[in-house]
Design goal:
The complex is a heterodimer. Chain A is an all-alpha fold. Helices cover 76% and strands 0% of the residues of chain A. Classes of the chains: A mainly alpha, B alpha+beta.
C-alpha cells in the first residue's frame, strides 16, 4: 500500500535532521505540558518550524496521510461542531437537562446519578467538551435550587463524560484519531468498547453513591422549586429542533452503517453538517462557522505535522523498537503496558498529543512484528486489535486522572470557578484518580478476559 | 457648550474597599444637583484620588447574577427569591471586585459632540469628567445632554432643564 512506499523514503540515521526534529517535538510537548504558552500557539509554531526547516516537506504535511494532517479527523470534528452549533439555540439541551433533573424528583443523589448517565450518553454521541459545556451550567442551577454543594455534581459530570466518551468512535478525540489511523469503523467501537463502558458506568454510579450518596440532602420545600420548572419553556425554536434532530438521527444511522456503505465517518458528518446548514436556511453561515472551536482544530493540525516530522526522521520507529524490547513481542504485555502507560500519560499530558504520537508508534511496531503484512491485514491483525482497544481505553479513561487530563475537566473547573466555587487540582484528583484506576482495572480485566482468555 | 458646563460636580464617590452594602446606600442617597434622589453610577477613586473604576447599578445586577447563567438559556428555570438569596451573599463583596475597570471618560474641555461620540460608541449613559490633572471633577449624564438638546429644539426660553 502507499504507506509502505513512503516509509522507506528516508533511511534511519541519527543525524542533525533527526536531532532537530526530536528537539522540536520534545520542547513543544514540554511547553504544552507546562501551559506557559497556549497549546495551540505551540503546536502551530512547532509545525511551522518542522516545515521551514524542511524536516517535512509542505506536500507531505498537507497531502501525505502518514506524515501530515489527518483530514478525516479534522473534518469529522468540524462537521460535528457545526451540527451541534446549529442545534444549540433550539433549546434541546436545556430541555434534556431540566427534564432529567425533574425525573430525579428533586432527590439530590438521584439527580446526580441521572445526570451522570445523561452526560455519559451525550458524551458518547457528541464530544465531551460540548456535553459538559451544556450540562455544567444547568447542574449548578439545580444545585443552587436545592441548596446543595454543586462541586460533587460538577466533578461527577466531568468524570461521567470521560467514561461515556470512551464508548464510541465519535465520543472522544482519541477514539476519532485511533479509528482513522487503524481504519476501524463505528460498529467496531460499539462492539468492542460500548459493552465494557456500560459495566464501568454501573461501577461508577455505585462509587459515587458511596462517596456522596449520604452527604447530599435537601428540604422538601426546595424540591418544589425544581418541580415547578417547566422544561417545555426551554424549546425556543421547535422547527429548528425537528430539523436538527432529523439530521442528528440521520448522521447516527450513517455512522452505524458507514462500514457497510463504504463511507468514512467524516463523509457522513460533513454531509450532515451541510444538510443541516441548508435546512436551517441561514443567511449567516459566518456566525455558525465562527463558533467552531478553531483553537482545538488548529491544535490537531499542528500536532499532526509535529508528529509527522518525528515519524519521518525515524524517532517513532526507534521508540517502537524500544517498546518491543521491553515487551519482548508479547502482545498481552504490550496491551497492558499501552493501557496503563496511556492512562497515566493522559492524566498528565493532554490525551490528543499523546494519541497522535502513539498511533504511528503502534503502526511502526506492527511493521516490525509482521514485516510481510500491510494495510488492513496488518492494522487489523488479531494480535494487534487488543492493543488498539487498550490504547483507546487507557487514553480516554486516563483523562479522569487529573483536572488537566481532559478538556472536559478543564471546562468544568473553569465553570465552577466562575460560579465562585473553586475546585483545586488536588480536590479533583482525589476523586478523579481513584475513578481512573478503577475504570482502567475494569478495562484490564476486560481486555485480558475477552481477547486473551475467551478470544472473541 | 463643553463637558464642564453640563456636568454635575463631584460630590459622592466610592473607594475600592467599600462593600456592596455601603455602595448601595450611597447610590440611593447620592445627590443630583440639589436633590438627594440617588444616581445610577458612582466613580471609584483610590486613596490618592485617581479614578480606578465606575460602579453602576448594572454592575450590581451582575453581582447577584450567577455567571453560569450566561452560558445557557436558563432564565425560565429560576425561582422566586433567587435574586434576594444572591443579594444577601453579595452584600459583603468589595466594590473593587464588582466595578467596571475600563472607564470611558471625557475631559472638562471636551466639546459636547465629543461627549456624545463617547456615549454612543461605548454605549454608556454617564461619563466621569476629568480635569487636566486627570482628577474627576464631575459626572456628565446622558439625561443632561438630552435636556440640552431639548432646549435647543424647543427654543431656549422653553427649556425643560431648569
Amino acid at each position: 500500500m502507499t504507506h509502505e512506499a513512503v516509509t522507506t523514503a528516508r533511511p534511519f540515521v541519527m543525524d542533525t535532521t533527526f536531532w532537530t526534529a526530536t528537539a522540536i517535538f520534545v520542547i513543544a510537548y514540554g511547553v504544552i505540558v507546562f501551559e506557559k504558552v497556549h497549546k495551540t500557539v505551540v503546536a502551530v509554531f512547532a509545525a511551522g518550524l518542522m516545515l521551514v526547516l524542511k524536516i517535512l516537506e509542505q506536500h507531505e504535511a498537507f497531502h501525505v496521510e502518514e506524515f501530515g494532517v489527518d483530514w478525516s479527523v479534522i473534518f469529522l470534528l468540524i462537521s460535528m461542531m457545526v451540527i451541534i452549533n446549529l442545534m444549540r439555540p433550539s433549546g434541546i439541551f436545556e430541555y434534556i437537562a431540566i427534564k432529567s433533573a425533574k425525573w430525579g424528583k428533586g432527590e439530590p443523589f438521584r439527580i446526580m446519578a441521572i445526570f451522570a448517565v445523561v452526560t455519559a450518553v451525550l458524551s458518547a454521541l457528541l464530544d465531551n467538551v460540548t456535553t459538559v459545556i451544556l450540562i455544567a451550567p444547568v447542574t449548578i442551577l439545580i444545585a443552587d435550587a436545592l441548596e446543595v454543594d454543586p462541586i460533587p455534581y460538577l466533578i461527577s459530570c466531568a468524570l461521567a463524560s470521560n467514561i461515556g466518551g470512551t464508548a464510541t468512535l465519535i465520543g472522544d478525540p482519541p477514539n476519532i484519531m485511533i479509528a482513522s489511523k487503524a481504519q476501524l469503523n463505528f460498529m467496531d467501537f460499539i462492539y468492542h468498547l460500548t459493552p465494557i463502558v456500560l459495566v464501568m458506568m454501573v461501577f461508577y454510579i455505585l462509587t459515587i453513591k458511596l462517596i456522596w450518596g449520604r452527604k447530599l440532602k435537601t428540604k422538601d420545600e426546595l424540591k418544589k422549586r425544581l418541580m415547578a420548572m417547566d422544561e417545555h419553556e426551554a424549546i425556543k425554536d421547535p422547527v429548528m429542533l425537528k430539523k436538527s434532530l432529523f439530521v442528528l438521527v440521520l448522521v447516527l444511522i450513517g455512522f452505524v452503517l458507514h462500514g457497510m456503505l463504504h463511507l468514512q465517518p467524516a463523509t457522513i458528518a460533513l454531509f450532515g453538517a451541510g444538510l443541516l446548514l441548508l435546512l436551517s436556511k441561514t443567511h449567516e453561515p459566518h456566525r455558525i462557522l465562527a463558533e467552531i472551536e478553531w483553537p482545538t482544530i488548529f491544535f490537531f493540525m499542528g500536532l499532526f505535522i509535529i508528529v509527522g516530522g518525528v515519524v519521518k526522521v525515524g524517532l517513532i520507529k526507534w521508540l517502537s523498537i524500544q517498546m518491543l524490547n521491553v515487551t519482548q513481542g508479547d502482545m498481552f504485555a504490550t496491551s497492558m503496558v499501552v493501557m496503563w502507560f496511556s492512562a497515566f500519560a493522559s492524566a498528565i499530558v493532554d490525551n490528543i498529543p499523546y494519541v497522535a504520537t502513539m498511533n504511528p508508534l503502534i503502526v511502526d511496531m506492527a511493521r516490525q512484528i509482521w514485516p510481510d503484512l500491510s494495510g488492513i491485514q496488518m492494522l487489523h491483525h488479531p494480535d494487534l486489535m487488543p492493543v488498539w482497544w487498550s490504547l483507546a481505553l487507557g487514553a480516554c479513561l486516563g483523562g479522569n486522572g487529573s483536572a488537566i487530563g481532559a478538556s472536559a475537566n478543564v471546562i468544568v473547573v473553569g465553570v465552577s470557578e466562575k460560579a465562585g466555587r473553586k475546585i483545586s487540582f488536588m480536590k479533583f484528583m482525589a476523586y478523579g484518580m481513584p475513578i481512573m484506576i478503577m475504570t482502567v482495572l475494569i478495562s484490564m480485566v476486560y481486555v485480558w478476559l475477552r481477547y486473551y482468555v475467551l478470544g472473541i | 457648550m463643553k463637558a464642564k458646563d453640563l456636568m454635575v460636580p463631584l460630590h459622592e464617590y466610592l473607594s475600592p474597599e467599600n462593600t456592596l452594602k455601603e455602595a448601595a446606600v450611597l447610590l440611593r442617597i447620592a445627590r443630583r444637583g440639589e436633590e438627594q434622589i440617588g444616581v445610577k453610577a458612582l466613580p471609584v477613586l483610590d486613596k490618592t484620588g485617581n479614578l480606578v473604576g465606575i460602579l453602576s447599578i448594572g454592575d450590581i445586577l451582575k453581582a447577584v447574577y450567577p455567571p453560569y447563567m450566561y452560558l445557557m438559556d436558563l432564565g425560565s428555570f429560576t425561582w422566586d427569591g433567587m435574586v434576594e438569596a444572591f443579594a444577601q451573599k453579595a452584600a459583603t463583596k468589595k466594590v473593587e471586585d464588582l466595578m467596571t475597570r475600563k472607564v470611558i471618560t471625557v475631559k472638562e474641555d471636551s466639546t459636547l459632540m465629543e461627549c456624545v461620540d463617547h456615549m454612543l460608541k461605548n454605549n454608556v449613559k454617564r461619563v466621569p469628567v476629568l480635569n487636566k490633572e486627570h482628577k474627576v471633577v464631575g459626572m456628565l449624564y446622558e439625561r443632561d445632554v438630552f435636556y440640552e438638546i431639548a432646549k435647543t429644539i424647543l427654543g431656549k426660553n422653553r427649556g425643560g432643564a431648569q
